[in-house]
TrEMBL record:
Keywords for this protein: Fatty acid biosynthesis, Fatty acid metabolism, Lipid biosynthesis, Lipid metabolism, Mitochondrion, NADP, Oxidoreductase, Transit peptide
EC id: 1.3.1.104
Major place of residence: mitochondrion
Single GO molecular function: enoyl-[acyl-carrier-protein] reductase (NADPH) activity
Chain ranges of the J domain: 5-66
Reaction(s) this enzyme catalyzes, per UniProt: a 2,3-saturated acyl-[ACP] + NADP(+) = a (2E)-enoyl-[ACP] + NADPH + H(+)
Compartments it resides in: Mitochondrion
Similarity comment: Belongs to the zinc-containing alcohol dehydrogenase family. Quinone oxidoreductase subfamily.
Name of the protein described by the UniProt record: enoyl-[acyl-carrier-protein] reductase
Length: 800
């Protein structure tokens, strides 16, 4: 059964007057009133019928559509200045007769008064900055005495920011320009290298006309990525002079947290958007001037969509102005169609019965991108390397009459070639980061009109500034109808501001999502600061406890003497010996090899350069403790030795690796001391010497493990490891030990200067230490080095 119309419910004809409808309503209401036994549902329907038919506007809409209310789409189109029919514009633009206007102007010039001439001269002047009012004077704090207002204190909190590094930091990370320019880096990888997440303190106070704004959402745009890589100077814009390091971000939505003195148009809780580029929206909290922001209605749409206000309004403006004369079934083409502006334009075209043709970059995810845009309502989606016109002609489809260019470069030329003659192109962005490359003959023969549009320039357009800002709010209100009703969507991904590198990864081609950064609110920053302080305190305590444990471990090293002739496990120390070649046996040399050489390697060189001159010398060569598979005394290569331990600078901070090295060194010193103690039983002159690591072990053994001093300790190419630590462990009765440190003049591992500096460091605790350079000597045990050793024995054992 068909539902009755409102006219049938009230039992009046369709041409009934308002008075007749009112009388019929009274009669039917009395009949169906629930208090008189009527049906409540019927009574409710009668009330609705009267509400609609008694209102002339609503009655007209009901007569035309049969519905009580307009749909969201119809309401949007009504506010958009369009109706859903064959023509999208209610009123056609007025055509001006140029010839008549020109004749009229010539006539006016024939008899022109003095005042009219002055007015013409004034119109030829740039008067945008010539009008001075009280309001303009009050905007500049230089015109206000600081004694006349009280500054507002700000909370002491550090804000999270994404900044472009300073020139010095960029040179450090990227190298000189002549080098870095040759390196092949992806644009996003370069952006990651040129930027960093840092934390900066807020100013202490708000000054005149300033306000504290908490950024709620900030979209990442191609402009932001370009500035991140190349800096603002590469834009060649006089209105954007900012030097690195500076905060990135040009768009977003913020909420006013605090207002400063003199602020009249803003209040706490207001929603604001940047009125110019370069304010730096990639941060959680910022101090902006009242004139730097535009107030927008609160709760108009979700905050994340309001953060994309530029993209929404650019799409709205392009469709309402440039595409105003398009009729249902006409086509337009837009590149970067998978961007936020492209997605919005495609959906608006679907609402207006226009054919949207999109161009996107070909990438691995192209098929998914194409499917997504077609789902939004695109008529055709082409890759940037596909021909467009042949495909449309094969389907007998009309060529587009309007093009929207968000890329620039060669992409603009592709747009022109896809348009019908006499069409219009509007450039609104530069994803391609290059200017349009259009041969003049293409422009001439295609009769194309090329325009440019920038939302912020339009909002700050001189005398139209006030009207355009009102229109800007109206645009947002219109777009909010679609957004709130779920009729318009933008694929976006929210990423915390601190995860900047993840945001860059999400901006890779083919992701089909708009990256929107979500900073922390004021309370979130306070919590982060408190957590960071707690973490710092915990790390400091852990570091302090670790250092104390290491200091305690170090203090327990090298405490006792090694009086036994055996090692710590009770086993006799293994040694290789070279017996005296002739009697009498007069001295013993305990020799510690350097870098894992076998003792047998030294036999011939000792015979030629030492024993042949002093046949009464016995040579004992202990083997290292078996803590590793090698014959090295210590698990320490020359590179670590040079970079970590070759320092005459004192340091109380020892790492776990240092403690382990010292433990191995003590074990080796114990074994060497046991060998020396056993050799002492023969009551002959004892000399302890060593090369490289062996020399270090000889020093520690002679100064910390022996009960009494021996005549001489000799080191060859062996700068002491941790000399300041050794100085604290030397026994008092061993400080007079004679120590001679030899270094080859051509030592290519440890320079003479470094070795002499180490010897000077130990001289404060060892007055009898001396440094000697071996002319032409190298980092080895050769004839020159053994000759230096023989010279010591010559003083101890004069020839008979």
């Amino acid at each position: 059964m068909e539902e009755k119309s409102y006219y049938e419910l009230l039992e009046v004809p369709r041409n009934a007057t308002t008075n007749e409808i009112r009388q019929a309503f009274r009669r039917k209401a009395l009949e169906q009133h629930p208090d008189r036994g009527g049906d409540p549902d019927v009574f409710q329907t009668i009330n609705k019928a009267y509400d609609v038919l008694s209102d002339p506007e609503r009655r007209k809409y009901y007569d035309r559509t049969g519905r009580m209310e307009r749909s969201v789409e119809e309401d949007f189109l009504e506010g958009f200045g369009r109706a859903a029919g064959s023509t999208l514009q209610k009123e056609q633009r007025q055509v001006v007769d140029d010839s008549k206007a020109l004749q009229q102007r010539f006539a006016e010039l024939q008899e022109q008064s003095h005042s009219q001439s002055f007015e013409a001269w004034m119109r030829s002047r740039n008067t945008s900055s010539m009008t001075v009012t009280v309001e303009t004077l009050m905007q500049d704090k230089r015109n206000i005495s600081e004694d006349s207002y009280e500054k507002v204190r700000l909370p002491r909190v550090r804000t999270t920011t994404v900044t472009r590094k300073s020139a010095e930091a960029l040179r450090s990370s990227l190298g000189p320009p002549q080098v870095s320019n040759k390196l092949q880096r992806s644009p996003l990888a370069l952006a990651a290298e040129c930027t960093e997440v840092s934390y900066h303190a807020l100013p202490r106070v708000l000054d005149w006309k300033e306000c504290l704004v908490a950024v709620a959402f900030a979209p990442v745009s191609p402009l932001d990525l370009f500035v991140a890589r190349r800096g603002a100077d590469a834009l060649f814009r006089d209105d954007l002079r900012i030097e690195a390091p500076h905060v990135l971000g040009n768009s977003g939505i913020g909420v006013v947290e605090t207002v400063g003195p003199g602020v009249s148009s803003l209040a706490v809780g207001d929603w604001v958007v940047p009125a110019r580029d370069g304010l730096g929206t990639f941060r959680s909290l910022c101090v902006w001037g009242e004139a730097d922001v535009i107030k927008v209605p609160k709760e108009l749409m979700p905050l994340e969509y309001m953060g994309l206000h530029r993209e929404l309004c650019v799409a709205y403006y392009l469709m309402e102005t440039v595409a105003a004369d398009l009729k249902a079934g006409d086509a337009l083409v837009i590149n970067a169609a998978n961007g936020a502006v492209g997605q919005v334009v495609i959906q608006l075209c679907r609402l207006m019965n226009l054919r949207a043709i999109g161009i996107v970059r070909r990438h691995d995810n192209f098929s998914d991108t194409k499917a997504w845009l077609e789902y939004l309502g695109a008529y055709k989606i082409f890759a940037d390397d596909e021909p467009i016109v042949p495909s449309l002609k094969r389907e007998y489809a009309a060529l587009p009459k309007v093009g929207f260019d968000g890329v620039g470069g060669l992409a603009t030329l592709k747009l022109i070639r896809s348009l019908a003659p006499g069409s219009t192109i509007v450039t609104y962005g530069f994803v391609g980061e290059t200017g349009a490359m259009i041969p003049w003959q293409i422009v001439v023969h295609s009769r194309v009109t090329i325009q440019g549009f920038d939302l912020l320039d339009w909002l700050d357009d001189g005398t139209k500034k006030s009207a355009n800002r009102k229109k800007f709010v109206q645009m947002l209100e219109q777009m909010a109808k679609l957004v709130n009703a779920g009729k318009l969507r933008i694929s976006m991904e929210e990423i915390p501001l601190g995860q900047w590198l993840d945001a860059l990864a999400g901006a890779e081609p083919g992701m089909n999502t708009k990256i929107v950064l979500k900073p922390l609110a004021l309370e979130g920053e306070r919590s982060r600061e408190a957590q960071a302080a707690a973490d710092l305190e915990r790390r400091q305590k852990e570091d302090h406890d670790r250092k104390e444990a290491l200091r305690l471990a170090a203090s327990n090293l090298f405490l006792g003497s090694s009086e036994s002739k055996d090692d710590n496990n009770g086993a006799e120390v293994s040694c290789y010996e070279i017996a005296p070649s002739a009697a009498p046996w007069r001295a013993t040399l305990v020799w510690l090899h350097g870098n894992g050489e076998l003792p047998q390697e030294y036999t011939s060189i000792f015979d030629r350069h030492l024993i042949s001159k002093h046949p009464g010398i016995k040579v004992i060569m202990p083997t290292p403790p078996p803590q590793s598979s090698s014959m090295d005394w210590l698990a320490l290569d020359d590179n670590d030795w040079t970079t970590k331990y070759l320092s005459a600078t004192a340091s109380d901070d020892l790492a776990e690796s240092d403690i382990q090295l010292l433990k191995n060194l003590e074990a080796a010193a114990d074994k060497v001391a046991a060998v020396v103690n056993r050799a002492r039983e023969d009551d002959r002159v004892i000399v302890l010497a060593g090369f490289a690591q062996g020399g270090v072990v000889a020093l520690y053994a002679a100064l910390t493990k022996l009960a009494d001093e021996i005549p001489h300790v000799i080191t060859l190419g062996a700068p002491c490891v941790l000399p300041h630590f050794l100085a604290t462990k030397i026994k008092t009765n061993l400080r007079a030990t004679n120590i001679k440190c030899f270094a080859g003049a051509n030592d290519d591992v440890f320079s003479c200067a470094d070795q002499e500096a180490i010897a000077d460091t130990l001289k404060r605790a060892l007055p009898n230490i001396s440094f000697h350079q071996i002319p032409h000597g190298e980092h080895e045990v050769g004839g020159l080095e053994i000759d230096a050793l023989e010279a010591i024995f010559a003083t101890l054992l004069p020839r008979p």
